[in-house]
Design goal:
Length: about 120
Amino acid sequence: MVRSEAFLDHGIASAIKSIRSIAPLLDRILVQRVKAEAKTSTGIFLPETAVKELNEAKVLAVGPGAIDKDGKRIAPSVQPGDKVLIPQYGGSPIKVGEDEYSLFRDHELLAKINE
């Protein structure tokens, strides 16, 4: 029996009630992409097609870290609440309701934003 992707997506989305129930494993980092402003500084609203996705994201949860070849844990380079730069493409998308999140491996993050 073949299941359609729509059925699988609906099944996964309905299984996750809250993003707080997701605990990343190993060196994975859960982030939410920062949304670009849909309004200019002068108050003009931009059409949805003109608003680009930003590569900036907020770290929501962090796994305990990867394990090296000697069995020692490697601490993640970021903590929840940090702002990071992420690749334009990649990561594992997670959708909870209307909100979208992504899981990246620690080494896939491009930079940490220090403010």
